[in-house]
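Hey team,

Sharing the ATP-dependent 6-phosphofructokinase run so nobody has to redo it. Sequence (777 residues) first:
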Amino acid sequence: IMQDTKKFFENLSGAGKSIGVLTSGGDAQGMNAAVRAVVRMGIYVGAKVYFIHEGYQGMVDGGDNIKEASWESVSSMLQVGGTVIGSARCKDFRTHEGRLRAALNLVQRGITNLCVIGGDGSLTGANLFREEWSGLLDELVQSGQISEEAAQTHSALHIVGMVGSIDNDFCGTDMTIGTDSALHRIIEVVDAIMTTAQSHQRTFVLEVMGRHCGYLALVSALACGADWVLIPEMPPKDGWEEQMCHKLSENRADKKRLNIIIVAEGAIDQNNKPITTELIKDLVVRCLGFDTRVTILGHVQRGGTPSAFDRILASRMGVEAVLALLEASPGTPACVVSLCGNQAVRLPLMECVQMTQEVQKAMDEKRFEEAVKLRGRSFENNLNTYKLLSHHKIDAELPRSSFNVAVLNVGAPAAGMNAAVRSAVRVGITEGHTLFAVNDGFEGFSKGQVMQRKLTDHYDFFWYSFRTLPAKHIDKIAEQMRIHNINALLVIGGFEAYLGLLELQAARSKHAELCVPMVMVPATVSNNIPGSDLSIGADTALNAITDTCDRIKQSASGTKRRVFIIETMGGYCGYLATVGGLAAGADAAYIYEEPFDIRDLQSNVEHLTEKMKTSIQRGLVLRNENCSENYTTDFIYQLYSEEGKGVFDCRKNVLGHMQQGGAPSPFDRNFGTKIAAKAMQWISKKLKEFYRKGRVFANTEDSACLLGMRRRALVFQPVIQLKDETDFVHRIPKEQWWLRLRPLMKILAKYKTSYDVSDSGQLEHIVRLRAKDISAI
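Structure output:
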């Protein structure tokens, strides 16, 4: 791969090429991270990169609006929300004359590669510009504004788009840049409102943004357990007013002191009439007499610093966009770079735009089910999970199965565990099972700390989990399984949970009670579980690291020439240090998986010494807690202090347990909710499958699984088959996807490195559902 990569970089040199980068349309957090990545990757491959200020308006006006970018000019913009190079809605670009002026401005600077960061309108405009390009050049030649030779040299315009929009309304991409940050703002507000609502027993009606797309409303409702949500893609059925009021009063009767109703700004009823927050408020007051308040979140959702997820998404996409531009030939269609699951993909821009427009058309024509399908699998999965969790039936009407399911947390705490437990319990009860919660992990299980749960239970402070493994308590655990007649187990936790499941499976030969379906959901800040690219809690920990690094970098702005050494958690897994480094703009990240020696430390010090000669006079170095036995945080701090004498001074910081605490991020709440719901549905399926002669008996490999996210999908994998993929000594998977992100971090920190592009996105087509497929679903 290393040889292929070197060959690849020679083939794809950017020498002699010029790239223009612009942000257009509504701003979104993370746009700056995308601009930074495009500029630095462009310069890295030898191209010239130009900022086009104020979006298309700057392209039309030319002059100082189009400026060459330098490496230092994008420093310090990673943590800034909005867009530093400005954005504007541009009427001129919609006219032929405007586009002609824009073409002249680009040709005069030799720019034939455009990276456009914006919404569907901005990207559609870019594609039209590309289609007209040769005609525009002909006009410029005829009017004598450019030479025939210049027209020949600049005959093809290449366009790559990145979707920057908080609405997440663009088909073909799971997440658009800015969506996750907007969810952070919404959840922060909802969490704050919940405390005041609880004090006064109030109902709050919250309006969130999203234009004609209900994604923000839907996901925030899922993440905060809202009582009701109204979105354009799923207008409520006739009689919804009574249903909603019934649900609200039912919740109050269950001792719940508050109600939260989330309304998307584009919410409509079956007749395409808008449903406003005031309408909802009047309805609740009239029917129930509840003290009701309205909060419209507005532009708060667009503001603030970008989340770790958005910074990483934008950085990955920015690098991918430059690669796509370098690979483009005159016949290549304009494409969009995006993420599908955890995989980078390239999609033809116009296919995505047409599909996005089809969603609106389907909604206008009241074909709402089709609109949901067209929105894509991410939206559909969220909607299905919401429907599953918002069961409006009272207990007496729920189906009854004779199965008992136990849920337990194992290992260190991870933010989002409570969301997973709540989701699992609700789905389990809705499917008719009796749900038991086990306190204190496997140790509590052996002591019989087992309690039944109800649909109305709250999980703000859930039961403790212990690191104890089951092997030494196996007889007692089997006895408790028999006493409570437990027919299935859902284990939520980290590496101990994985080891525990392996031990339980191994003990099946001795204890028939353990021959039941078992599934594990990964939850650990370290993200070190084999079989899953991500685990619950890792995103919250990344945000804690990123926030702290931002503050630390800011503290250095008053003092010149300072380098910070920061120690992160993760055991032997370097995920937090690497991905945190990418999100915080670190100069280096030391991890166990990539061995380093004194020469590497020396070259890092020299690299920082060179950096101090530029206008960026601060450094950030992350170190995973177990990256090396001898090169400790103190050692690295002392080495840097000694070697940097007279050039820079050093400070060190051990982040510690703050990485395990805090309110869970929207991503972790949503991921925990979806993955636990899916795990419980798997349990239901397996219980039916293994029910024979009046009892459940499961002794196959595939009846003890780990549910993990692998690239694009959530997959169930027998734990026994994951053994070969595991380094048990260091408690990490043998292969880890995020190691492919390390070269990005190095490139963006100006290190020469080989970048394996075998994993970069290939041009794909949107999988379209035919009408008959839609009706069959």
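Confidence is low (pLDDT under 50) at residues 1-8, 769-777.

Ping me if you want the raw files.
A.
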